[in-house]
């Protein structure tokens, strides 16, 4: 009879594994934050002395706007060829757009691999989707970190008197980290580690052992020795010791309440 291999694994629940849920939640959240950081014109804020104290300039990678702290009204589409000719602006435009596209591709690949209605997910497909999401997060962090590093060195036609970090930088960092974490956690599902806990799997032998460990073991057979009683020498019935061991004694009561015993010889 063939024995079951100890390398066979089984999932005890049809629920989606936690690592896939973690990645499928963080990835869309990171994509939304990256989209906001890409289109919003607030990578840095300038407070030049040539403007009134309540006015400031917001510069993004696609547009430049003038806003006031006392009103929500903004004047956008300001021209600044010196700013948009910077290398960091061109790199940020390309990487941010590429990151958004790669995230969508990663989600499209990961969703068929998750498939929580099947016995087990397609870990290879889900892991490849997680790898794409991880790379999209890296493509977001690169321009965000580079822009932050040279924040005050990026030239502009506007005098750089008071330069501050815009909210797009914060959203970009958070979105990129979400995608990196979500994609990495999904990717580690390709390999089984921590005793299969990352996949929610358990060895078949361990499951079978736990299932029958609470049952009592079968009773042990005990051989009871025969009782060799001494025969009385006064008996009037001749017999041999060897043959008596094989005899059967049948005793019964008659209607007169008398006991009769018969010896059946074998």
Automatic annotation (TrEMBL):
Family named by the database record: Belongs to the claudin family.
Coiled-coil blocks: none
Keyword Transmembrane: yes
Stated name of the protein: Claudin 23.2
GO molecular function: structural molecule activity
InterPro entries xrefs: Claudin, PMP22/EMP/MP20/Claudin
One Gene Ontology term, aspect cellular component: bicellular tight junction
Keyword Cytoplasm applies: no
Subcellular location: Cell junction, Tight junction; Cell membrane
Record organism: Seriola dumerili
Transmembrane residue ranges: 12-33, 88-111, 123-147, 167-190
Pfam family, one: PMP22_Claudin
